[in-house]
Write a structure and sequence with these properties.
Elements (H helix, E strand, L loop, with lengths): L4 H14 L3 E7 L5 E7 H10 L3 E2 L19 E2 L1 E3 L5 E2 L6 E8 L8 H14 L3 E13 L3 H6 L17 H20 L8 E2 L5 E5 L3 E2 L1 H20 L3 E3 L15 E6 L18 H17 L25 E3 L6 E4 L7 E4 L8 H18 L26 H10 L1 H7 L1 H19 L4 H7 L4
Parallel strand pairs: 1-7, 14-15
Antiparallel strand pairs: 1-2, 3-4, 5-7, 6-7, 8-10, 8-11, 8-12, 8-13, 9-10, 13-16, 15-16
Helix pairs in contact: 1-2, 3-8, 5-6, 7-8, 9-11, 10-11
InterPro entries: Gln_synth/guanido_kin_cat_dom, Gln_synth_cat_dom
Family: Belongs to the glutamine synthetase family.
Keywords: Ligase, Plasmid
Length: 447
Amino acid sequence: MPKSPDTYKTFETKLQEIGARSVHIGMVDPEGEFRDKLVSAEKAVKLGKDGYPFCEVLYFWDIAESTYRDGSFVDRSARLDATTIRKYPFAENMALCIADFDGEFGRRSPRNVCLAQIEKAAELGFDVHAAFEFEFFVFDETAESMRAKQYRDLTHFAQGNRTYSLQTSALYGELLAGLETTMETMGVKLDAIHTELGPGCFEAPLYHEQGIKAADDAMLFKNFARAYFARNGKTVSFMSKLSPKLSGQSGHLHLSLRDRDGRPVFSDASASDGLSQAARHFLGGLLKFMPELLAMCSSTVNAYKRLVPGAWAPTAANWGVQNRTAAVRVINDQPESTRVEFRVPSADTNPYLALSMMLGAGLAGIRERIEPPAGSAEDFYASTPAQDAVFPRDLHEAATRLRASSKARELFGSDFVDSFAESREVEHREYQKQVSEWEIRRYLGVV
């Protein structure tokens, strides 16, 4: 759809307000990586008006930038989203802006899929509010030192760290404050930052935001946290599972809906559990479709090393009020902040796809009036789940189920499902070619 002249004016005005002489334009790939081009402010305004041609290869290579399709890799039409213009945190007089493919090719874009789900919520009369919280490890390593060590025996930052540790905060408060300042420059608000379980382990819950900004903020947080720590001679890891000896890293997602008057949709003070019928139906849809859509929020091979018994993570679709062992935890402390916490995603999740999956499945539950199974306060880690609630065991099984899911195609479109499932199948095939140190130690000289 053509933009109005006011849109061009807004784009230029925003850059002028920032005082930007140049702009970092970011295309976000299926892995959630900000693919950067630096252009002058004048060129950015022109691209905002005329479109932004960008190479399609982002959707035909894997995370290691190895192409898995032959082709000429032509430029595809893309657009700059003027609403995403923000200050760039590492230099004066610079801005950043998110761009994405449009048209038919853009149907495979995770961000576009997320925007479509937010629009579907609006059609039902709902505003979406969401917030991610990420756990991550920090290492006293650079990219060069890790490669020199062949990624073995890496030195953890803050090795004496303890959960909610005052000592770590006292020792390294300046570094943590710098991370918060970096995010504030871009308009990414941290609700808190604290230490977590393990050496150099931290958690950063983001402040809730409306609509696509919640996912944009999460994407920017991960990308610019990596850049911030690299600028300080350190490496941050959002991997789901680094070692059997260390806890997994979560990327929990909190979501609530509000009506057009700003009232919370999930709350009903007259209900025994404080939950409205809309909340129950949202839960019903999310729980019913979660296993077949799992590849969308758990999209790496490594994510499934966390989704196993004994790893403090769910292995099946279940829910409970204030139950931290559940895949879905309902938080109903206060009616105005009643929300659903999706505890399945790891820190390596693509925020656009995690939010799309949660919102798409939940809204389907509202439309179809799907009743959830009974919630429970039991320890789900120790219980035996219903067979149809059990998650896929690995990325290959998850991708297969996503590709075969008629509900996924109905909610997110076949262009996206086929493209994304193919990329996950490629990722799993690469994994199957590898031989781990565990296999060598276990079998060499024995079998």
